[in-house]
Amino acid sequence: MEILMILFTLLGGITLSAQSSVQGTLSRKAGTIETTFLTMLTGLVFLTIIIIFFGQGDVLGILSAPVWQLSAAFLGTGFLLLSVIAVPRIGVIAANVAIISGQLGISVIIDHFGWFDSLVIPLDWKRLVALLFMMIAVYFIYKGNKRSDLEAHT
Length: 154
What we know:
The chain is an all-alpha fold. It folds into 2 domains: 77 residues, no CATH class; 64 residues. It is 82% helix and 0% strand. It contains 5 helices and no strands. Helix 1 packs across helix 3. The longest helix has 29 residues. The chain is globular. The mean pLDDT is 88. It comes from Oceanobacillus locisalsi. It holds the Pfam family DMT_YdcZ.
């Protein structure tokens, strides 16, 4: 079952990169906010249908959730909007490596402090070195994109 979850996650990463690229292109024609709106609207329709036919949870449970948990909806929308802004300007790989670096950075902090009922996993030098390497990767990928862009325009 764990292998299946890894494959699902891998497929999720593939779709995320494809989505970023397509949305970046669409945003040039339709606008950044409009592209984000289309994505959210499509998600709403798609998930409403799935909930109607396959849902087993309690949608009204959202009304009794703590406010801080509801912030996830705004965080997801913010992520999507920011990625639609970034991809056409810095490229898919630079945006996705930066996204992953941001995710890992905040994940280390969340784990270290045990926020949101997560496991407490102390920050150590190995994690700090890993984060440093991710930031170095972002830098080199971004610089490589800039150089490629300059070469393409000369």
